[in-house]
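Retry 2 of 3 after timeout on previous attempt. Resubmitting structure tokens to design endpoint.
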């Protein structure tokens, strides 16, 4: 894969996650601020290190930055848990994991507006990133904190990590 499919269809939702319409990826990422749902899975190992993925340079949003281990859009007609399992399988080969719901919230950037459904899990082995990603690795809490605000991570990851794991 060398670019995102701008014709992919996403559901449009209200702040509670109720589907109210649909739009293409291109429309959702055009700056129109159409609220669409996404899933994030924070993957920890038994020692508390957090696995992060590096976004490929061809991504339409935040290329080359480190981000949540699993992150992806909910497809039109798909529920949040199905999307979480699909994205975890596609991006990291994770199939047998227990997902703990952390929070749902609205994230807004200059280009898009997402209803983020954040989860976490603990694994006993290192995930294997697919060709959808530009690699990944486990980070200690100290490594994450020392790289905050330096353009290493996506703004969404920094905001979410701070809200969920630094309070």
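Retry 2 succeeded. Sequence:
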């Amino acid at each position: 894969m060398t670019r995102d499919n701008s014709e992919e269809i996403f559901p449009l939702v209200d702040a509670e996650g109720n589907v109210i319409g649909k739009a293409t990826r291109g429309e959702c990422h055009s700056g129109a601020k159409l609220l669409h749902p996404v899933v994030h899975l924070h993957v920890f190992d038994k020692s508390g290190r957090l696995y992060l993925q590096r976004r490929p340079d061809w991504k339409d949003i935040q290329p080359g930055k480190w981000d949540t281990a699993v992150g992806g859009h909910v497809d039109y007609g798909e529920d949040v848990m199905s999307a979480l399992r699909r994205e975890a399988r596609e991006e990291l080969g994770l199939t047998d994991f227990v997902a703990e719901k952390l929070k749902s919230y609205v994230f807004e950037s200059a280009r898009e507006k997402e209803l983020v459904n954040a989860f976490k899990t603990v694994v006993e082995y290192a995930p294997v990133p697919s060709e959808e990603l530009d690699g990944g690795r486990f980070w200690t809490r100290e490594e994450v904190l020392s790289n905050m605000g330096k353009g290493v991570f996506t703004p969404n990851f920094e905001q979410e990590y701070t809200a969920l794991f630094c309070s």
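Attempt log closed. The chain has one domain: 9-165.
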